[in-house]
From TrEMBL:
It comes from the Eukaryota. Residues 521-579 are annotated as: Disordered. This is SPX-domain-containing protein. It is a multi-pass membrane protein. It comes from Aureobasidium melanogenum.
Amino acid sequence: MKFGTTLRNAVYEPWRESYVDYAKLKKLLREDDSSRKDDTWTDEDAQAFYAELVNSQLEKVTNFHKSTYQKLRDRTAKCESKLDPIAKAVQEAEAPASSYAGAAKKPSPSDGERKRILKEVLEELDLITKDINELEKYSRINYTGFLKIAKKHDRKRGGRVSSIRPLVKSRMADVPFNNEDYSPLLYRLSAMYSFARQNLEGQDRPLSLVESIAGEESYITHKFWVHMDNLLEVKTIILRRLPVLVYNPQTEKIAEGSQQDPSITSIYFDNPDFKLYSNKVEHKTDASNLRLRWYGKLSQKPEIMFEKKTVKTENTSADERFPIKDKYIQPFIKGEYHMEKAIEKRSSRQVSEEALQSFKNSIADIQSFIKDNDLQPVLRANYTRTAFQIPGDDRVRISIDTNLAFIREDAIDADRPCRDPEDWHRRDIDDAEMEWPFKSIRKGELATFPHAVLEIKVKNDKDYEWIDDLMNSHLVKEAPKFSKFVHGVASLFEDNVNTFPFWLSTLEEDIRQDPETAFEKEQAKKQKQQEDELAVGSLMKSKSHSSYKPGGLSPVGSPTDKTGSYLDRRASRQSAMKA
């Protein structure tokens, strides 16, 4: 489907006039005017196009997003104000009588008034939630439109000298509509929904978000980009607390000096319409991805894992996985083999009935998922991983991926397939044991990533001061929703998809930061977090979960055990500010 059609279908009618005028920009490019004899593209034409694109269309979208988001925040605050008298009345009713002795109590709303307020707030929350979803869709489709029209310009009117796509990406990296974090606002809405419903329906107070997280084992994942200039310092900060771990699916042990970090290969699946990609970019409920993954070279006969991950919420997912031998992968994809031998082996090992059934379910689910969605291997991601973790201690798990390369693995173009359609992987790569930087791969089939990818997984979202310091330092660039699968598809199949991840424009900027500027941004961010958490504190009736509180002890040693690095100087500044 052409992007112009996609844009028309995506328009939210009340905001129609505020979208990028894609048709007008195409007209300025004279893309569809094939009857015109003189197709000369003058400097005046170029200036008029760029002015309309950046000064008019981009400015229009930016201003609309900014004003709409502020209105949503104002509407949210108004709902909190309406609920405040009810929240205070609930707290006073639950508190011991002596707690309020001598205190002047404000009159509580009557039962009828309370119900009216709660119903009105719930109705308004539904409208706010709907508008937030529409605003996110609005931002994404406009972001994609700017990238698409810039590419059209470069193809028809550009060249190495007059290419504007990098300039457009750079401009968009600075505007809020492509990097707005809606999470704090959603957290406030969630608290009000919970409070209003339990008071309207008379239910016992359920566990707050903070309490429910503390009551179960879960991991909170934080993702960052690391500029190669900062990579060594980041590694040394981590390895002073956590040892480098040999990354192997069967064993875990501390790495020895002679060992190299292993390479990891993932082959991702999708269909010719890139349905799985679109679902993931648009954050659809139960968006899934499917991949084959192994460590090292395929010629070394590594264990190959079939893995399906389904996102349930922003921080939780359901995983299904099982090992499969090389020779069975293609028949499994085609539905000719159903892992009978593997099931038989497990049955003979006296595996528990529950584990055996789970294994069978994973096999059946993944095979039907392939068939129902017409999936094929489309993308290879290859990278080198350094892992940090105390063996046997999973409270903190950190990985750093470098030399990240994406390679087309598809057979979508029947005339020029990148992969033999009758095979599950590219033998020109694996038989030749190609490695980074994959110089033999044809142009257009390879994309590399300029930064290292840092991933920090913390059990139960526990705070560690040294991790908090690292995450908020100038050494890393936050990339909360970064996905290798999404980035690879967006980089190599941009003509096949009509939606892009917001982080693409950020790649055009220098992610290195001045330490002082980064520190000031951190303080402003924490102040904003505190304000948002304070707004819902009375509704949650529990201590707000703030990242600004002192961290816990490191899994290895004390967080105060620091050397003369940047983080030392940063800690000194924080101490001075608190004094």
